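Reopening this ticket.

The earlier resolution said the output was attached, but the attachment link was broken on my side. Pasting everything inline this time so it's all in one place.
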Amino acid sequence: MSGFFKRAIFLIPLLFFVFSSFALAVTEDECRQRQQKDIDDGIACWQQLLNEVGQKKATLQSEIVKFNTSISLTLAKIDQTAKQIKTLETEIVGLTTQITKLDVSLNQLSQILIKRIAATYKKGKVEPLSLLFSSVDFSEFVSRYKYLRVMQIHDRQLMVQTENVRTNFEDQKTLKEQKQDELQVAKRKSESQKALLAQQKAAKENLLQVTQNDEAKYQQLLAQAKAQSAAFRKFVADQGGASILNNQTKCDAWGCYYNQRDSQWGNMLIGLSNSRMADEGCLVSSVAMVAKHYGKNITPADIASSPAAFSASTALMRKDWSDKSITVSRKGFSPSTDKIDSEINAGRPVIVGLYGSYSYPEHFIVIKSKNAGAYIMNDPFLENGADKPLTDKYNFSNIVRVDVVTIN
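Inline output:
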């Protein structure tokens, strides 16, 4: 066999891997075309594409495609919400016009009905016998009596008509109020979607900046994220698992205690990853507690839903990140009572990593104060883990890193 054929046979599997590893059932162009025809079908297409990309081998190219697809999906949802808002606004204008007409009709019918009730009341005072004797003859009596009966029937019909208009008027007012509530919900949804879009674009730019379009750097970042995830999951496994808890949030003058397993966000995924808050959300919850202490109205759910806080589509929190009205910066130090004491004496809580290594702690907690020589912690994993002495669960020797956190 010639050298050419040998090389060709060797390259076939490689080429197959290159092309098949990124072969997708749907394409971006197909999704755009489907979106133009039907927004709901377009959203379904983008979601399908995103799911397929997520199942491919993690490479820098696949990560960029994943970001682009996520951005396109969010843009499609923004378009869908905008159309919903426009439809609701049109319906509300139509209902307002209809209500105005019904209001005029109701006023007119009410005035007519009032006059008819007064006239009927006066005529109703005439007894049939008096009507008979006041008539010239029997024929006139019959005619006058029939007239009274017709007017009574007409009055009843007028009353029914007025009641129907009044009921329709009230129904339309209620429907308008419902549509106005739906409009406010849709507007808030639109704001949230636009914020997510900004976060996704920022996360993509951060990915490109960090990796400098270098596959090796991306794989290094991915390895770091996997190592941190493994460390978190080891801690959870050692604790017997991460069951969901209820009613864990507690707020006071210091701020708020948040638990990563709280039912409010325990099942949320972190950033664009597949990592669950209950399993890997100790750092997210700790940062949220420190931020709340500094007066920021933020919860673990807010951070977990922000792709800008994490590296690429992983759950690895960046050292420095900004989103909406908050900027977070963490600087790590080796374990030191002097460092911890200097921070908490100045009213600045610290986040400490436990077990594992300096680079990949297995768990994070907040040390908020010191009382009679004992450090007081907020542990985001323990049930009702607020204001507990550190030594109730851990030893100082378990601390592998001290993070000084700056919140702006």
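Reporter confirms the inline version is readable. The beta strands are 250-251, 256-257, 320-323, 326-333, 350-354, 363-371, 374-378, 388-389, 399-407. Confidence is low (pLDDT under 50) at residues 3-22.
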